[in-house]
Amino acid sequence: MIRSRQLAYRYPKGPVLAFPDVDVPQGGVLLLAGPSGSGKSTWLALAAGLVGATSGQLDVAGQSLGAGGAALKQGAALDAWRARTIGFLPQKLHLSTALSVHDNLAMAQWAAGLAQDDQRIGEALEALGVQDLALRKPAQLSGGQAQRVALARAVLLQPQVILADEPTASLDDEAAAASLALLQSTARWEGATLVIATHDARVARFFSENTSQKGLLRIVLGRKQL
Ligand SMILES: Nc1ncnc2c1ncn2[C@@H]1O[C@H](COP(=O)(O)OP(=O)(O)OP(=O)(O)O)[C@@H](O)[C@H]1O
């Protein structure tokens, strides 16, 4: 489902980031750990096809995103693949402040080139327990509610892969545990592979206590910059 070999990325005028090899089965959990600046967000951007690898192989849900994948889909085709395959939960949730909760989800369908499907939007909001908030604007939500809405949006199109960037940053222990339980149960419900980038030790603890060893891979990115 996710497989990488000798994956590396170089920012223009920046360091070369070299990543450990990974093999993550469908439905598995990958934790990307490592200190600030070790390349966690970059790895997520590579897996989402937002940036192309400088060298090495990366296959995500059947799509070759590595440097050898010269046939990498471009432009609109890559955007459509991403919209249908990847659910992204960014650290800053990026809900559109001008739109209602419902319309934030409708916009995700629109961005994927799909017709608006109010029933599916209702189902996604209900699965995350925020169906009563559909007509509110993001500014009228608590932090936890906003995170649920962002997660509903991330899984709206039933992605094969959920990428979450520091989902517990700035949360207290109770909220962090709730957030991780929500991510885990949502990924299980959708049968999705879950990738979490974090330097929060609570995340590793949560998944080692709540996931079978077989389905869990943790890699620690270092400052192995060439
Ligand atoms: N646009 C850029 N141009 C040049 N270098 C960059 C750019 N973006 C990130 N970097 C560098 O690449 C490295 C990896 O950054 P990245 O954001 O992936 O790390 P991270 O592990 O996600 O960090 P954090 O935990 O602080 O979010 C860092 O050394 C960073 O300074």
UniProtKB/TrEMBL annotation:
Gene Ontology CC annotation, any one: plasma membrane
Signal peptide stretch: none
Keyword Cell membrane: yes
Record's keyword annotation contains Cytoplasm: no
Record domain ABC transporter: where: 2-219
Coiled-coil residues: none
Keywords associated with the record: ATP-binding, Cell membrane, Membrane, Nucleotide-binding
Gene3D superfamilies: P-loop containing nucleotide triphosphate hydrolases
Tree of life domain: Bacteria
InterPro entries: AAA+_ATPase, ABC_transporter-like_ATP-bd, ABC_transporter-like_CS, ABC_transpr_LolD-like, P-loop_NTPase
MF (Gene Ontology): ATP binding; ATP hydrolysis activity; transmembrane transporter activity
Protein name: ABC transporter related protein
Organism: Polaromonas naphthalenivorans (strain CJ2)
Phylogenetic classification of the source organism: Bacteria, Pseudomonadati, Pseudomonadota, Betaproteobacteria, Burkholderiales
